[in-house]
Please model this.
Amino acid sequence: MLKVAYLGTAYCGWQVQPNGISIEQILNENLSDLFGEDVKVIGASRTDAGVHALGNIAVFDTESRMPGDKVSFALNQRLPEDIVIQGSKEVDPDFHPRHADSVKTYEYRILNTTFDNPLRSAQTCFYYMKLDVNLMRRGAQYLLGEHDFSSFCAPRTQVTDFVRNIFSIDIEREGEEIVIRIKGNGFLYNMVRIIAGTLMEIGRGKIPPEEMKDILEAKDRTAAGPTAPAKGLTLVEIKYTE
Amino acid sequence: MLKVAYLGTAYCGWQVQPNGISIEQILNENLSDLFGEDVKVIGASRTDAGVHALGNIAVFDTESRMPGDKVSFALNQRLPEDIVIQGSKEVDPDFHPRHADSVKTYEYRILNTTFDNPLRSAQTCFYYMKLDVNLMRRGAQYLLGEHDFSSFCAPRTQVTDFVRNIFSIDIEREGEEIVIRIKGNGFLYNMVRIIAGTLMEIGRGKIPPEEMKDILEAKDRTAAGPTAPAKGLTLVEIKYTE
Model:
């Protein structure tokens, strides 16, 4: 099992795609080179183009006898500097990172200033209109718990079950940034970015916080706010609970 | 007067150079385009290749009647996303940003973890050996005040006066990062990076903190530690005191 961190800026996302280079492809190529056999990773979260991670999870099968904890160091020697393994260990061959129960933590970072900050622009969404964090918090509370999140799912999806459980949403100011930290048992396609985009509309006073309840109940993507840009989103952690 | 922020990664530094693109050149080109006349900026600090800034200062002459505070917005429309003007105002035509007295604040950021963080690697120096912040603080105190900093100046320089005044050096942990924040009336070529490199040697126990006194008194570059990488350094602020 690999804990994978990456700056998503240069990639077409996690999943192998015909146009563009994916994180999955870079890992497959470098693991195959390292072990001299054909290696294919299975990722826990197929993050979108431009989305970052501090702790995505990937597993793979290998004939190699390299100790699990040494793989991270050997692999980091080969990887480009925008992908860094944060740790590795051997796991049960039956373990599947998408089928096992987990708590996923995402962070969405908004740079809420008059001017963009070039030292932070790769990892934040610049938003110059003043945002009221208290309004955002009031809107976010309606999303807590188990709901059908169809309103917060991009149409392009093969999913049929739109019920997910959000355990917590914390919204804090960190200097010039507003951080939306969401924990849940799973997220639909673009779900965190649509939640962030809707919370920004609430924060600037365009949507009243109470309307979040109606948006959720509408079960219709067009009821919610815009999809916030990918570059503000980071998959922080996946914790397996079983 | 422009307050200029930039991610230095893609640039050969502030100053126009035959090989590579400089911040100065980008500003000259875009200001000349904006005003339809030949504009040349004078920068306060000629930062090195790869060094970042949140608040470098530049001035220029123009025939334009655009109000000073509007220049930042007009110029940001044209600039690449890794250079962002943080504000602009009209100043006295005699003002020279390098001749006026000022307090300059630099930050050197060290990512002191087992694995590099790809979300922070453009703006930090990754250092995996454990650093003792208290040792670094003890070493730093010898540098406070007015001294001849020849030991902390790269040989390639036309400067003849090596005396500078350091007002403060604060060393703090911020999560996984160690931040060295230095304020002074001016800095020699590579001075902050040589101080940071020497403090890292002290922090890992290779040089005793008391030896900083001898290094300073040696007035010899070879007495100090290595020059820390450019990417960890940011010019945070220049405050004019007159």
Q: What stands out?
A: The interface with chain A takes residues 5-7, 52, 54, 72, 76, 81-87, 115-119, 121-123, 234 of chain B (CB under 8 Å).
